[in-house]
Each structure stands twice: as C-alpha cells, then as structure tokens.
Amino acid sequence: MKCYVKSAVSSSSFCVGFFSLNENRGLGFLALVPVAAGDGAVHTPLLVRDEQGDVLERLDVVLRNIAELRKEVEELRNSLQHLAVEIVGEVRSHLEETQKVTRRRRFPFPRERSDSTGSSSIYFTASSGAANTDDGESEGGYTTANAESDYDRESERESEEGEDEVSCETVRTVRRDSLDLVTEDETHLMLDSSLEEGLGQLLQQADRLHDGDEQEKREGFQLLLNNKLAYADQKDFLWRLARAHSDMCDITEDADEKRSYASDGKEEIEVALQKWDRSAECHQWFAVLCGQLAEHESIQKRIQAGYVFKEHIDKAIELKPEDPKSYYLLGRWCYQVAHLGWLEKKTAAALFEAPPTATVQDALQNFLRVEELSPGFSKAGRVYIAKCYRDMGNNTAAVLWMNLASELPANTKEVAVSVSTINDEGK
What subcellular compartments does it reside in (predicted)? Predict the structure, then answer.
C-alpha cells in the first residue's frame, strides 16, 4: 500500500514522497520523486529495511521516555501542590495561635478604678472618716462618687459585651487580612526561623552525644545522618556530621568499615571547606579524617597525609588561636612524627625535600598549651603529657600526670589502651 505526500522542492515544482506500508516492517519511507516523472518513476527507499527498523525502535524509546517524563512532571507538580498546602496550613495555624494570644492579652492587668476606696481621687467630694462602700456614704454622711447605681453597672456590662463583639470581629478581619498579606518572602522567613531553632536544638544534642560513650556516639551519628537532608547547607551541621563519622571510625572494629567511615566523613567535610574555608572546625576535622583514612594506606600516602594534616591544623590555629582542640591535634602530630620508624624516615627523606620533623619536646609544649587554655580538656591530653615526660626520662612528672589523667573519664578506646600500656611499663 502506498500513499502520496507532496513536498515543496522549489517555487516551480513539487516532489511526491511515498510511504510504503509493509506487513512485516511497518511504515517505510521511499524517495521523493518529481511529479513530472509520472507513474513510471522508480521509487528507491531512503532507508534500508534494517535502518528503518532501528529508526522505529529509537522513536519508540523516545516516546516511552517522553511518557515517563510527563508522568514524573505530573508527580512533581502534585507533590509541590501538597507541600504548598502544608505550608499554608502551618502558617494559618501559627497566625491563629498568635491572634488567640493577642486577644487573651487585651487586658493583661485587672482594671483599677480611679474611684476606689483607697484612692485620693478628686471624685471624693468630702470625707471625714473611713469610706463605706456599702451605701455610698462616708462616715460623716457626705455622698461620694464611689457609689454606683444599678443603671451604671448595667451600662458598663453592656459596654463590655459590645467591646467583646467588636473585638471578635476585629480579630476575624485581621486574621483574614493577615492571611491575604502573607507574602512568599514572609513565609520563607517564618520557615527559616523554625529551621534555625530546630538546628540549634539538634546541634546541642549532637554535642552531648559526642561527649558520651560508644552507644551515645552511635546515636549521635544516626541523629545527624537522619537530618542531613534538612541541614546539609549549614556549616555547623556539616562539620559535626564529619566529626560523627570520625567517632564511628574510632569505635568500629572492622578495618573496611573504618575506611568507609573515614572516607565518607572526609567527603562531607570537603564540601564544607569549599564553602567555609575560614572555619577552624572544618579544618580540624578535615585533618583528623585525613589522618584516619591514611592509616589504611601505604607509607608514602601516610607521609603525604601528614603534610596535609599539619597544614590544616596550622590553619585552624591561625583562625582560632584559643581553641585547645587544635593544639591537642598538633601535639598528637608532633608526637607521632617524633616516633617515626626507620623505614618511614627513609621513605620521607627519599620522597620529599623537606621531610616532616618534630620532637617529643614540641609535642609536650602543645599538650601543656591545651591544659593552659582548658584544664582537664581531655584525658587523652594528660595521658600524652605523661608519655612525653616518660620518653624524656622524667618519671616523677609522668606519674603525676597519669594520676591527673585518672581523674577524668576515658571516652575512647585509644585512651584506655594508652593508660593500660603506661601502667604496664611502669610496673
């Protein structure tokens, strides 16, 4: 079966295109031929049969994709409508509650009558003794303005009822006007305020759980993970999320899980650093997670990570020089560099022109700086002070600082192991 379609070729002639319907292949396209060629013209197909099949299959794919896209757009439109309805409902509830509070506060204090018995008001025409409010006369028999007639009381009651009716109508009118006048910007401000308040409470809870035991650290990690969608663009949230990944890396036994937590945490804090490179906390936890991730790498990568660690800790101290956490981390770095093994030192010397250098004395100075800024900042800090004194041969000071460390709780396995090691060596 063939159908003819005219197609303009030039201003003076037309060509006819043929559509060929094949039982097996479906719709096919034949070449355009001039009308003047007559019925005897030979029609050669523009596409061979296999190419026609490919074109039809691609068209089917395009049509299916368009249908799926329309469906997704419709679902998105419906979800946005539901979200808008929820937002409007929350705003309306907030405004209604505000209006209720406003109405309750219309007379925040009880009325005080200027003609009370204890008043020296000019409405007292005369008084030679204590006032008597029962009959409206003073002890001396003179009538005062304190006396009220039944008509006055009825008038006041009716006046108050009228005020209540007017007030109710005013509240309803203001409520309608308020709903009409709430702009999109004001709605965003209200929502932002609510999110900010929720963020403050969330961060406080996360800090408390971070300072707790292993189970509380796990709860803190899950808490932050559950709220990532809402606060992923907040600096203070992101560095705490990275800190929680570091906590999970510390308390997890499996090596693969440790690597995974450290890697994921590093990715989170990298995002934060791209936006807030002036945040000391972001630099701190980037350094920590780089160090944790390097523990599972080769010697070369560990040494490279050491340079990165030192760079970011120095930056954190520059941004926040009174933060004891940064000095504690720098002390840890100095102590580890001072105790590099022979192979690590040779590798560093071969790979880098200026290999990292630090002494136990450098580490001790940083740990003592921590105690100066915040006495009892951490048990780990005091344990490392004891280690430094022990390495320097001052056993008396080492014992003193171990006793001071024992006064503080051990929140990490590393601290408990360090304490046990020093105690065993001291025996």
Answer: Cytoplasm, Cytoskeleton, Spindle pole; Mitochondrion outer membrane; Nucleus
The answer to whether residues 209 and 223 touch, using CB atoms and an 8 Å cutoff, is yes
Structure tokens at 25: 């292949």
Query: CA nearest 283: which of 246, 245, 311?
Result: 311
282-302 confidence digits (pLDDT tens): 999 999 999 999 998 888 888
Task: Give dist(CA 344, CA 358) in Å, integer.
Answer: 14
The amino acid that residue 270 corresponds to is E
Per-residue confidence (pLDDT) for residue 134, from 0 to 100: 42
Q: What is the pLDDT of residues 256-286, one digit of tens each?
A: 999 999 999 999 999 999 999 999 999 999 9
pLDDT in tens, 27-54: 444 444 454 555 555 555 556 777 777 8
Structure confidence at residue 54 (pLDDT): 82
Q: CATH number of the domain at 322-427, out of 1.25.40, 2.40.10, 1.10.357, 3.30.1660?
A: 1.25.40
List, in order, residues 6 or more apart from 187 with CB less than 8 Å away: 87, 91
Angle between helices 255-275 and 235-251 (to 10 degrees): 160
Single-letter amino acid code for the residue at 60: D
Query: What is the rounded distance in angstroms from the CA atom of residue 79 to the CA atom of residue 84?
Result: 9
**What are the residue ranges spanned by the domains of the chain?**
2-74, 322-427
Location of structure tokens 């006819």: 16
| CB 313, CB 287: distance < 8 Å | yes
State how far the Cα of 186 lies from the Cα of 183, in Å rounded to an integer. 5
Spatial distance between the Cα atoms of 236 and 239, rounded to a whole number of angstroms: 6
pTM of the predicted model, to two decimals?
0.55
